## 1
Amino acid sequence: MTKGYLKMARALILAAAVSLAIACGPSTGLAQTPQPPTFQTSGNRAFDEWRDEFARRAVQRGRDPAVIGRLLAGVTPDDRVIELDQRQPEFVSPVWDYVTNRVTERRINDGRALKTEIQSTLDAVQQRYGVPQGIILGIWGLESNYGGADLNWDVQTALATLAYEGRRREQFEGYLMAVAEMVERGLADQQQLRSSWAGALGQPQFMPDVYLTTAVDWDGDGHRDIWTNRGDVAASIGNYLQDRGWRRDEPVFEEVTLPSNFDYALADGTMRPIADWSGRGVRRIDGVTWDQTNLSAQLFLPAGANGPALMLYHNFGVIRRYNNSDRYALVVALLARAFDGRSGLVYDWPRAAGSLNREQIVELQTLLNGLGYDSGNPDGLFGSGTRRAVRNYQSAQSLPADGFPTTALLIRIRQSAGISQPEPARVPHGLQRSGIRELQRLLNRQGYSAGRADGVIGARTRDAIRAFERAQGMEVRGRATDVVLERAREAGRR
């Protein structure tokens, strides 16, 4: 074959390729990525930028552009959702108030009535998943009052607002992706997607990703209907707990008595065999001999050494997978007992000891840190780190190391820190309309773009307050309070 012939062949091949490219377009042989949807402006440029970018990434990850377009069309950030997400109560209710306000006669009676109505379904669900029907009803009652609670938000609005707000953006964008998948697969009609302010769906209050993996079509009608179908609701809760490790025929908790001179520092969350606890003199409060000494449990003192003492088994921790709170799990277990006609706790709560409010817990944490007992970031939340620091302080002071904070303990810690009287805590108060107008004017003058000074808190004003708080090194809450106003006045005088 001559060189001239080769040149002519190459030219013909190249020409044919060019012609084919012109005829078929540049994407021949390649999967063309669908174009993301376009939206009308919401009036909030920052939200629009987030929404458009999210839609682009959602389509890139395989979500249907038409579904994304329908879900987010007309959505604007809901200030009520942001307010609820950022709300930090100034007073942390004592454990006894939390329990008493939830284990009520009405909730117990309503649960018993529902149990009677759907007894055969509950029996079958319990047989299938191994979860006692009282536990299922307890969660059902707490989450949605057995379906009676109102779901006041469109899920896409709630989730888009929280994703845009940014504190947990990746988490809530993931939930939005899951909602889009639900609609694409026909698992739920868009009009049916009503939720709590946090985007939790249906009577069991599943987040969208949990719905995709855990919701159950109990009656086999082709729909996993956790909104109106009681069988699907009960089975979905049972399936959730089984999937998270529920152990059939094992208990949740037992109330116990402790011997005198007991080492309360053992209430440190460590699981120990019942035989070990029995050897230390721990007894069931009903006087019944331990029948499962091979099981392990941890000692829990929800109100310290002067309150009830509980042995928590593995299944107590499984309930916490539904809601990461010891109090929540205790209420579910107490409701389950009540549905079965069993009594609640025998030992009374130490109400006279009192309970610390949020500002006092911040003070406690700050003082403990200063004394060398690491309680973590002083945030007013009494978690495991603070409980451990309290126990360590109590041990060093030869006090019962129960890890429970009381007013008397705070006074003692103040004395250890050389403080006789604490400085009064400044509690922020919300502004009236005239104060909001003044704050908006001050923020605008300082370049924070709070919008028109109309005395109305909208998304633009909240964004401006957050930017100001960040610049001032304040806690970022985005709320129009007297504390923020005073700081803005000071900044304006500099």
## 2
Amino acid sequence: MADVEPDALDRGFDNFDAFFTRQLRAGARPVARESRAVVSPSDGLIRDSVEIDESTRVQAKGHGYNLAELIADPELARTFIGGTATTIYLHPRDYHRVHCPCDALVERVTLIPGRLLPVNDAALARTPGLFALNERMVHTLETAHGKMVVVMIAAFGVGHMTCSYRHIEPHPRAIRQLVCEPAVRMRKADELGIFHLGSTVVLVTEKGVEPTSAALPAKVRMGQVILQGNGER
């Protein structure tokens, strides 16, 4: 609670959701501003940071999924062959707003309906391809390091994710996509969306954007450097 604005604590919260999605005080999450630094979009535990193979499949620690299914876009998925998929698990105690990993233009946001299965380690081992089964929100970005997508994945008890820069209504059975015309200009650490309970974020980057640490799992905070880009595109 030391990360929350004192005024917010004094006012209190109208309900549990307002408490759970509370904003942070200014400076609570220092952001690495170097142009090549790609920062964590959220608090959480980096489970893995692995290469995307020629079939656009992501295989990590015994569980895998097809990137084309995860983001519901086979053509875009092919852009990321040889790139990296970084998976961050958010515990309920973590800060649950999701932010832009670098300066970017947001081209579109896609809501994909699905299940609300748990995303803990036991559930991942039990259900192959779980991430591509659950409900998710996909933010598609154009950056100096190439294309990126930030995928917010729902989980057990998390039927509610909101987009912070455009209003988009979910549909229980159909994919909803909103093309941003014009594209939404975001600075590093600007807010992309909100989880209204715990879940997982997958950050997908093109080839040439490299993890900064091989020691995983690793606890991170939003704004901390997790990848290094070339910044030349």
## 3
Amino acid sequence: MSLLDDLRDALDDRLCLDPDVLDAHRHDAWALSQIRDQRGDPPPRPLAVVAAASTADVQTTLRLCRRAGASVVPFGAGSGVVGGVSTAADQVVLSTAKMSGLVSLSTEDLTATFLAGTRGDVAEAICQEAGLTIGHWPQSIALSSVGGWVATRASGQLSTGYGNIEDIVLDLEVVLPDGQVLTTKRIPRAAAGPDLRHLFLGSEGTTGVITTVTFSLRPLPAASRGAAIHFATLTDGLDAIRRILREGWRPTVVRLYDAAETRRQFDAWCPDGRCILLMLHEGPAGLVEAQEAGCAVLCQTTGTATDVAAVDSWLAVRNHVPTLGQLSAIGLVVDTIEVSAAWSRIGAVYDAVTASLSEVPELVAVSAHASHAYRSGVNLYFTFVAQPAARAEMERVYTECWRRTMESTAAAGGGISHHHGIGRVRRDFMPQELGAVGVDVLRRLKTALDPDGILNPGVMIP
């Protein structure tokens, strides 16, 4: 019998061979995939799509594919933007979209367990009905799955106050490439050897398929108050954030825009050439009042307060942006690239990346904002726009812009990915990020867990 026969016998209607469904699972939302689609060069259709409805379906799929020597591409909601999904004709896509819904919720323990395919906004709405919040709010919250959050080591807009996904995940259920199920223990912390959750946080579907995720929740904040301050330079704004976090304040949202992005999005509240900082303070009323006052004092030496309506405006439109496919359809090469660095190096990263991208002849604009801050450093989220003279040049220009950003960031001492992951677009820059020894450790880990190499080949590991 063929692999398809085996899958059909075991999974019945969960196996899909419909051409439209296969086409919809060829790739994720990577900008380069959109460019290739529009020039008529998409990746091949996969052999099949398995719409798993349970952990047992995932186990069956992996065991049958492993026995047949066929590779498996895990597929959450398809919202990834770095090429984590790009199929070949002999691959089986394993979709978790039907594995959706709440498994359990405890208001005493402040935990909620969801099936991995649950969409982010659905999970958050369920928690809010109980007066709680996950505290993880990526721009893609309505387009992404909770399992995808874990697999890409995601970060949300509230991360400065609530932490990133690794700070919010409490336990996982994962199906390993051989079909075994690993369930980590639901406890707040352990010193029982290395934390096995981190084998799958950021794994991009290469070490296992995440089937359930348990989050450590928070009560919905009793109070919430915004603040907006503008600075003469990006450096002044970054220094204000550094001092805020050094003092121990933790605003839920901290977003600093360079002059170009400030002019584009906040010109109604900020003089031209200035850089705006948005903050959101949440929590108990007394804490919010104290934090707002403490942060204001630290900003006032170099910053000027402006109308808090700037924060309200951002909150209203924060998830409304044109898709990369819409922009490439009109001949624009556009992408966002998030990196990070220590405070002492972040200025050099900004200068190096913007200078290098400015040398690309087709470049129209480059800008950046900081949206995730820590005691010891901060991220930068670059946006570039280029317009080649011919559509045939779009991929070359796109690749050149990414190469320059990655190399400039690494040379200035920054990290090449903050929260979108590696996928294919960053894969070949991993030696600069991890070093030769680090890449070797990553390969050994992959080989130990997936000796047959069936899970998502071509991703992350150079």
